[in-house]
Write a structure and sequence with these properties.
42 residues; mainly alpha
């Protein structure tokens, strides 16, 4: 039982890390798009 819970916890942590990475990536993408638009405006 304990081993199964440990595995599940690890999977949960990986999912959380993935969500954080995804959020960071989306923010970064937005920033890149914004700056890209600024540069092409010159």
């Amino acid at each position: 039982m304990g081993l199964k819970r440990e595995k599940f916890k690890k999977m949960e942590d990986l999912l959380l890390q993935g969500q954080k990475l995804c959020r960071c990536w989306k923010i970064a993408e937005r920033i890149w798009r914004y700056y890209g638009r600024e540069e092409s405006g010159f």
